[in-house]
Amino acid sequence: MATTTVDPAATAGTGPAAGPGAPVARHTAVADALTLTWRNLLNLRRKPQLIVFATIQPVIFVLMFRFVFGGAINVPGTSYVNYLMAGIFVQTVTFGALSTGVGLAEDMTNGLIDRFRSLPMARSAVLVGRTLADLCRNVFVVALMAVVGFLVGFRWETNALAFSAGLGVVLLFAFALSWMFAFVGMTVGDAETAQAASFPILAPLVFASSAFVPLDTMPGWLQAFAEHQPVSITVDAVRALLLGGPTAGPVLKALLWMVAIVAVFAPLAIARYRRV
Amino acid sequence: MPSPTSRPAIVVEGLGKHFGEVEALKDVSFEVPRGAVLGLLGPNGAGKTTSVRILTTLLPPDTGSAHVLGLDVTTHRQEVRSSIGLAGQYAAVDEFLTARENLLMVGRLTHLGRAEIRARADELLAQFDLADAADDRQVRTFSGGMRRRLDLAAALVHRPPVLFLDEPTTGLDPKGRNDLWATIEQLVEGGTTLLLTTQYLEEADRLADRIVVIDHGTVIAEGTAVELKARLGATVLELGFAGHEDTARAGGVLAPLGEPTVEGSVLRLTVDDGARSMLTAVRALDDAGLEPATAALREPTLDDVFLALTGRRADDTGPDDAAAPPDGTTGAPRARGAA
Ligand SMILES: Nc1ncnc2c1ncn2[C@@H]1O[C@H](COP(=O)(O)OP(=O)(O)O)[C@@H](O)[C@H]1O
Ligand SMILES: [Mg+2]
User: Fold this and answer.
1) Within 13 Å and on the Cβ side, how many CA atoms surround B165?
2) CB A120 within 8 A of CB A18
3) Do B57 and B165 sit in the same domain of this protein?
4) Model pLDDT for residues B226-253, shown as the tens digit of each residue
5) B202 and B268: one domain?
6) Does residue B307 sit within a domain?
């Protein structure tokens, strides 16, 4: 796997530690978060099952949807593989977000969070370090899926810039969701429960959405939910950036959802972190 | 820092904490002078970990107060954290990092300079006999003893003047325990203030200047090891008999020597002068026509301290008490030598 590690030594505060009485300085908060990002990425690289989860699974999904369902699903105005990619990017990072919660829950079970909390480091660092590491993982996963997508026939119908912006929206959405599952992980406190608690949240979001099929094939009551929930909104924005159509409105709506998710769950997760 | 050197390093006053129905701490007070070693001794569920968690800012107390180097642990958390090192009950090290990476991580998080972090890691790896395994093995391949040593090293990276060790040797084999004891002894020679929790009187005896005995969240005794043992009688005379009847009769016969306690067919007596008491006891039993199946003199254990202080055994805890360590180890150094 490519080395996506951040060396915190390169960025760590060179100044002296904050003296007694001084609040943790901002540069320390950044350095602490990067130290834990580095640590989380090392962990990721050394856990084979996570690498499989992060890479092989999304690739299989691309291939399956492309070749198994692709023939059966007709979408207006484009090929199914072109329609699919926006959905599968968002689907992958959405399910991937639960690993943020699982990772934090693991740290709680094995006592590492206690060690971190007994150190004079920034309070935000454990959560920011975790969500940043997961963002790095998603950069890698999304890039890999894009390559596989191109290999099986995907072509953007806009331009390279819009396509890149689409991937950016996917990554931002992943980062926002990380905070939601950081809260779940800090709340339930053990890895298995975090996993079990996350799935019922994730499945309806991903499948009752515009990720894989146009919404007008769903019954009316479901459409009402599917149309407005964050996965659909994000998929629509990404799809517009990949395939054309009006982009400003959908992208703005998606960004608003992300801001709302972070605004609600980041404070909740931090409050949880301070209490455990 | 607003603390004259005369002030104790740790001051705990009237600490109380409950979890739902469980009163983990009722009213705990003690002090640890600078540079001293305090042993917090108690059975599983006594409230040792809860006390340590409060003192290390991980848990707010319900009532009472705690100060470390004059700093209130509830209102001056970050400052307290700069001054303390914590090695919790279960080694809190990252399994997927190497030993060195673990120490570098802690060094960065405690904001040491880059060069100092590297030097400190080298120094600690050598000191804790981990240099050979420092770089090419992830910690998950380490033995329990190596993990504990690394955990302790991680607590020392930023040279904290006050150190908390929660059951540092639970789960170690006798060799590992002895090695760790030697290391801890070296540490406190350097002037570090240490609060150590343990279930083993032997450990507190070896490492601590003073011992505070807690049970069900209450301090039940306090003193030096010598004082505690003196309250108890210096040694324990343990006599085993063939049947319960004999044991009961022997209890009557030996009553003048002390206060015999009977458990099954074993009778125990705490005495000041071991050898003489043994002779006296054997003569008295012989006169009464009783013959013990086993006879032994041994050092008192936490069990004996408990029996003497509370009238019940240390492991005779209620159903709501803390579970055994997850690794299933209860390797207690409770020597039960039989003659
Ligand atoms: N987080 C918690 N939630 C509920 N009960 C707890 C919690 N932590 C400790 N206890 C209870 O408090 C009591 C003291 O526990 P603890 O301080 O861990 O004891 P020790 O470390 O001496 O074994 C025990 O009865 C334990 O079950
Ligand atoms: Mg404990």
Assistant:
1) 32
2) yes
3) yes
4) 788 777 666 888 889 888 888 888 888 8
5) no
6) no
